[in-house]
């Protein structure tokens, strides 16, 4: 296929317009590896980019999509050869560099990792950036000594992509998981099925510097007042992995959780994570994720044409779990 379909973000005056266009290989940037993209996914950051709700995209025109999986077609790198299955997340792809919402992509070899044995291409995007971030968060808690016997671990924004996979991974590893969500009445069965022991609502703001010690650890996808509340309630020597900001980028807290309880705030950078750690995280995902969890966390599979509408929905908190974008199927024909 010389020509291929892609979503292209273009700046017209002060507006950003998302359109589905037919491009040629000549339109792609000059990088070492040409990949035929099978699937991408819809993440919160993708929603921000496609709707231009935040300055995620650094240059235009831009093919958005911060992750992808596919097959190498051509390679000028000794690391990969034609026929290799590869995964990409992060590295500012879909922000500063053309990303996954296209049937073809030219990429740097250093951005790629091999598709782990045991995962299909679709499963890789059922996990995607969100699942990779969740695995990084769980690994960070483990490395700080947060073990299942220490007590409950809370996951905020538990019904989102990162939150859903975090709940499933922690439960699989034997932790007692508490899921925090503002959609508890409608999604409690879903979260319990993923492995949550109980469901709580959103955290509330408070002027108190410390509160009762509740959590041995936490994965926070929300930020702002939620992260501040989790820190106030984290037990002595506990750890909180901060990996999201759907509630905002501020952190209205004090130093008291850190200097009086020795709480650890762990920043999770899944964008520029070194390749060796990426490979390890993907291997662990392949080992820990079950077919049942893949089915539970996947909201649906959509085409390029449906991304714009779903981008609005994900920013409003109306998307549960993960949405896979099928690049091999077109809306017009329904065929590959």
Write a short abstract of this structure.
By secondary structure, the chain is of the alpha/beta class. It is built from nine helices and 15 strands. The chain is 29% helix and 27% strand.
Description:
The chain is α/β, with parallel strands linked by helices. The protein contains 9 helices and 15 strands. It has 2 domains: 3-115 and 303-326, Quinone Oxidoreductase, Chain A, domain 1; 129-267, NAD(P)-binding Rossmann-like Domain (Rossmann fold). Helix 4 links the parallel strand 9 (177-180) and strand 10. The longest helix has 23 residues, at 121-143. The radius of gyration is 20 Å and the shape is globular. 47% of the residues are buried.
Rounded to the nearest angstrom, the distance between the terminal CA atoms is 12 Å
H and E order: EEEHEEEEHEHEHEEHEHEHHEHE
Major sheet size, sense and barrel closure: 7 strands, mixed
Which bin fits the share of residues in helices?
25-40%
Uncertain runs are none
CATH topology (level 3) name of the largest domain: Rossmann fold
What is the domain tally?
2
Spell out the CATH superfamily of the largest domain.
Answer: NAD(P)-binding Rossmann-like Domain
Structural class: alpha/beta
Rg over CA atoms, rounded to whole Å, is 20 Å
Would you state the CATH class of the largest domain? Alpha Beta
Overall residue-averaged pLDDT value: 94
Tally of alpha and pi helices: 9
Fraction of residues in β-strands: 25-35%
| Record field, number of beta strands | 15
Shape: globular
At CATH's second level, what is the architecture of the largest domain? 3-Layer(aba) Sandwich
